[in-house]
């Protein structure tokens, strides 16, 4: 795989992850009742945790999109960290589904998060032989 393709795949993963987080974060903040109705989940007693999660998604989205359009080589840690958080979230959701019986819609959200995490981290892993400078050469 050529160096230019590696950078394009990394950017594509960042773009997909950033757009996913942007729309999910905006949805959670602006239309939480509609999302709760659509996914048929129980509305939390305290919505501050919902809004905080939306804000977190917007921050992650900002950094992924910034890295996508500006400086991939210095922001590989953003993609790696974002993917790890997505995988840990999915594991926690599956454990809660098994032990606490939370709604199945959360499993679907964890699945889409995991797929997005794979789309971000696989190109990073495939470029393991390249240095940060190599990732920046072909612009």
Describe how the helices and strands are arranged:
Elements (H helix, E strand, L loop, with lengths): L2 H28 L1 H8 L8 H22 L6 H25 L4 H22 L5 H5 L3
Helix pairs in contact: 1-3, 1-5, 3-4, 4-5
What does this structure look like?
- Helix content is 79%, strand content 0%.
- It has helices at 3-30, 32-39, 48-69, 76-100, 105-126, 132-136.
- The protein is globular and about 45 Å long.
Rg over C-alpha atoms, rounded to the nearest angstrom: 17 Å
Please, what is the average pLDDT? 85
Backbone shape: globular
What string gives the helices and strands in order?
HHHHHH
The profile of the biggest β sheet is: none
Helical region count?
6
How many distinct domains? 1
Q: What are the segments in which pLDDT stays under 50 over at least 5 consecutive residues? A: none
Helical amount: over 70%
Count the E strands: 0
Helix/strand-derived class?
A: mainly alpha
Terminal residue distance: 16 Å
β content, as a range?
A: under 5%
């Amino acid at each position: 795989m050529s160096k230019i393709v590696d950078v394009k795949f990394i950017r594509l993963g960042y773009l997909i992850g950033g757009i996913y987080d942007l729309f999910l974060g905006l949805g959670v903040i602006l239309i939480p009742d509609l999302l709760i109705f659509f996914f048929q989940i129980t509305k939390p007693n305290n919505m501050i945790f919902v809004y905080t999660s939306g804000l977190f998604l917007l921050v992650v989205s900002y950094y992924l999109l910034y890295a996508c359009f500006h400086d991939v080589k210095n922001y590989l840690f953003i993609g790696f960290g974002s993917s790890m958080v997505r995988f840990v979230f999915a594991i926690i959701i599956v454990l809660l589904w098994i032990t606490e019986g939370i709604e199945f819609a959360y499993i679907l959200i964890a699945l889409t998060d995991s797929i997005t995490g794979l789309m971000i981290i696989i190109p990073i892993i495939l470029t393991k032989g390249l240095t940060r400078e190599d990732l920046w050469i072909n612009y």
